[in-house]
Amino acid sequence: MSSAAQTSTAVPAADEAAASKSAENEAAASKPAENEAAASKAAAVRSMFSEIAPTYDLLNTLLSFGLDSRWRAQAADAALASGSWRAGSVDAPQARADEGLGDVESRRFRVLDVATGTGKLAFAIKRRREHCTVTGVDFAEPMLAVARSAATRASLDVRFAQADGTALPFDEASFDVVTIAYGLRNFADPDAGLKEFRRVLRPGGRLVVLEFPPPRPGLFGKVFSTYFERVLPRVGGAVSGRRSAYAYLPRSVLGFLPPAVLAERMRAAGFSNVDYRLQTFGVSAMHVGLVPAAEIPGGPVSDV
Ligand SMILES: C[S@@+](CC[C@H](N)C(=O)[O-])C[C@H]1O[C@@H](n2cnc3c(N)ncnc32)[C@H](O)[C@@H]1O
Fold it and tell me: What's the pLDDT score for residue 148?
């Protein structure tokens, strides 16, 4: 190779190194800004849900025409299904989301409901399998206060604790099932949440996510968007006295991931056999994914 050629390759290489260093520096410099933005979104979300806690359940029922209970019931069934759970969607035709889930009747079967709010999904699970240990966590204490009172009234033994879904106070592999209903889109960093759910799930464990996807194109999507953006903030604002909270709701839904993208993000976080089902014409969506059981030395765990 001529010295001219050597020079001409050496210079771009140096440039590349300098460019990559400067990109690294830029990334490092933008990290505190990102962290700050995430912290401020989390604080805003926490204070918003704390404010609307007293009217949250009433408005949920009212604004979803009672469908929210049905969507959570389907999530509770999917969380506990010991038979085959198949969404019947396009996403993972051969997936059996139940492989290795173990004995859901066992007292040692542990379910964690993240962003539990007033505990509705946690209660639905506990009602179905009394012997399971069910824990609900949320970072808004006033939502948990409503959940605790409801648990006492209904004599349901569900533990509630205040925690951020992106930094859960549990050891690795502490749960057989993690659920989250309508919480993930509120996370400042949903990917960090998914990774954290995977960390606390045992190999073979299952994640069930309920979320409102952005409205789909077409007539139904248009009608739904109009309801969501025009009617819902007015009714929500009038009943709760917090119009801004119910203006945030459509914004957060419009900005959230379409179902196929969320499925991809679950895979990127380490879940396998990811599958999803649209509920009520796609107003809500349920995703299910597994932590691969093959990762444990010695094979799948079955003694839950
Ligand atoms: C729309 S509510 C859903 C509550 C409940 N899961 C349900 O099905 O009704 C969203 C909940 O997520 C909680 N939340 C949002 N971000 C969170 C986070 N990073 N960690 C813990 N909870 C969070 C809020 O405090 C709120 O209670």
Answer: 98
